Amino acid sequence: MAGPDTKTTILDAAEALFAEQGYDAASLRELTRRAGVNLAAVNYHFGGKEKLAMAVLARTIAPINAERARRLEALPVRATTADVVRAFVEPAFPTNANCTAGHIAPARDFCRMFGRLMVDQPPFLRLFLAEQFRDLGLRFEARLRQSLPRHDAATVWWRMHFLAGAMAHTLHSADGLAHLTAGLCDATDVDAVVEQLVAFAAAGISAPPLPAAKKRRAAAPATERRARSRR
Q1: Cβ neighbours of residue 171 closer than 8 Å, sequence gap 6 or more
Q2: pTM across the whole model
Q3: Which CATH superfamily is domain 57-222 in?
C-alpha cells in the first residue's frame, strides 16, 4: 500500500507540531525535520507557515461544514430545535459504526491543536474563521429562529457560541469524564455522547430569552456597569 503523499505528510506533521507547541513557537525547521522534507517542499505546497496553518485547519473544518450544510438543507420546514442542533453536532463526531474504540482521539488531537492556535491568535485566524463559519452560522441561526420565534438573533448567536464550546470541551475531555466516573460515562460510545450533547444544547438554546432589562445590562459596556455600581 502506498504511503501518504508529501502534502499529507506535511499536514500531519504540522497538526501535531501546532498541537504541541502552538503557532508562535512552532518552527518550519522542526516541521521539516518531523515530516522528512525540505523547506522548498513546504513552500511549494503551502507558501509558508501561515497558509500551512490555514490548510491544517481547513482540511478538518471544511468537510465537516459541508456535511452540516447538507444536513441543514435536508431538514423539513418544521424542523425542531433539536433537529437543527443535531445537524450541527453530528458531523463533528464519527459514528460507532464507522470507528473503533478510541475513535475520539483524532478529534481530540485536532481540538488540542485548534485550542493552541486560539490562545496564540495568529493574525490570520479571525478572518479565516469568519470565512469558514459566517455564512453557515447565519443559515443555522435562521433555522433556529424558525423553531424559536421569540428568540432574537443575538440570543441565538450567543447560544450557538456556547454550543461550539461544549462540543470542543466534549471532544477534548470526554476521556477525562470517563475516568472520573469510573466508566459510567463511556467516551467510546459516540452515539450516546452525541445524544447527550444534542439534548443538553437543544434545551439550553430553547430556554426563554433574557428579559429586555437583563439584555440591556448584558450589552452595556464594562465601564458603564462599573459606574452604575458606584452609585
Answers
A1: 92, 93, 104, 107, 108, 110, 111
A2: 0.84
A3: Tetracycline Repressor, domain 2 (1.10.357.10)
